């Protein structure tokens, strides 16, 4: 989920940066065979406004999903299984979130340096940074990044939000520390990394998984049946 949002944020930024460069330095900007003179272009605010709007919508959607996931998985009384994520995974999440913040900062600064007209885009990236820091502090320091399981689904939240429902499953397999959930419809396959769960709780997690999934309807592959 997070990767998809970041990919689109990157694509929009890359498409908009040359325009910001052309406008800011009064250079000629070429797109689709057209030549646009930065100092003569009448729709500078419109272009930056559209880019800023798209970026904001992507960021808001991503942020809403993350905060909603944290709220849901921390309602511990609703879960049969609920645990903090593994400390090793937590360190990796902290590293990736830090790199994400640095990336947003650099992109925001580049927009501002290229063109003062792109100030709104810079401000949006700074909002991304503030949200990412707040979410990371809430998740890491507040121990809100967690993995939970109910009788109907697995929910895991750190920098990603994962929801795996048991309804419609036809096969669950395990390979190299990953669970793969295959569904009857549309050949859908979801994966879940077991290293999200502390080592001393993985056995309980697997026990509940097999208890909640009807093994007469769902085939288990690669599991120790002893």
From TrEMBL:
Protein name from the UniProt record: Uncharacterized protein
Origin: domain of life: Bacteria
Species of the source: Brumimicrobium aurantiacum
Keywords: Membrane, Transmembrane, Transmembrane helix
Keyword Membrane tagged: yes
Transmembrane region(s): 7-31, 43-61, 93-114, 120-141
């Amino acid at each position: 989920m997070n990767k998809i949002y970041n990919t689109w944020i990157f694509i929009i930024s890359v498409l908009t940066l040359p325009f910001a460069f052309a406008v800011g330095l009064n250079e000629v900007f070429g797109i689709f065979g057209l030549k646009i003179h930065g100092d003569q272009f009448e729709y500078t605010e419109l272009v930056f406004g559209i880019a800023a709007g798209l970026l904001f919508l992507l960021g808001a959607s991503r942020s809403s999903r993350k905060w909603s996931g944290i709220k849901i998985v921390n309602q511990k009384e609703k879960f049969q299984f609920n645990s903090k994520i593994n400390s090793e995974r937590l360190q990796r999440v902290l590293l990736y979130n830090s790199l994400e913040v640095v990336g947003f900062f650099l992109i925001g600064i580049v927009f501002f340096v290229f063109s003062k007209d792109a100030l709104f885009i810079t401000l949006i990236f700074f909002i991304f940074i503030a949200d990412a820091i707040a979410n990371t502090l809430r998740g890491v320091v507040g121990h809100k990044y967690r993995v939970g399981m109910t009788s109907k689904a697995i929910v895991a939240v750190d920098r990603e939000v994962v929801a795996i429902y048991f309804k419609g499953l036809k096969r669950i397999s395990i390979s190299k520390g990953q669970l793969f959930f295959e569904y009857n419809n549309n050949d859908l396959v979801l994966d879940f990394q077991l290293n999200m769960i502390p080592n001393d709780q993985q056995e309980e997690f697997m026990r509940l998984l097999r208890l909640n999934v009807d093994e007469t309807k769902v085939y288990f592959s690669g599991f120790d049946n002893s």
